[in-house]
Amino acid sequence: MTLFEKIVARQIPADIVYEDDLVLAFRDIKPQAPVHVLLVPKRLIPRIAEAGIDDQALLGHLLLKAPEVARLAGIADSGFRLVINNGRDGGESVPHLHCHILGGRPLEWPPG
């Protein structure tokens, strides 16, 4: 069971920002910006490269909820960045697909 599955199952506490039947959003415990929220599907998809056609509706829901989560976190108007890491070199640290929603300050490009 991944760390995020344990958070979804309420086995590990988290500062939850948003929840519906399909996704859960919570504040990152090691924020990389003043606002750093993770948006995860409740159903495990290890990474975007392993998503299939059966995941299409869930992935669409995840992306469409990101602006709503950004609004709830107070960064929708000033702007935010969505990041999805894939694999070790892509920065993936938890094998459970998730979007990082970052904002609260100007974000540099390239990201690093």
Walk me through what this model shows:
The chain has 2 helices and 5 strands, in the order H-E-E-E-H-E-E. It is α+β, with helices and mostly antiparallel strands and 112 residues long. The protein has one domain (3-103): HIT family, subunit A (2-Layer Sandwich), CATH 3.30.428.10. The protein has a 5-stranded antiparallel β-sheet, with helices on one face.
In short:
By secondary structure, the chain is an alpha+beta fold. Helices cover 21% and strands 22% of the residues. A 5-stranded antiparallel sheet has the order 1-2-3-5-4, with helices on one face.
Write the layout of secondary structure elements.
Elements: H1 3-8, E1 16-19, E2 23-27, E3 35-41, H2 56-72, E4 80-83, E5 99-103
Antiparallel strand pairs: 1-2, 2-3, 3-5, 4-5
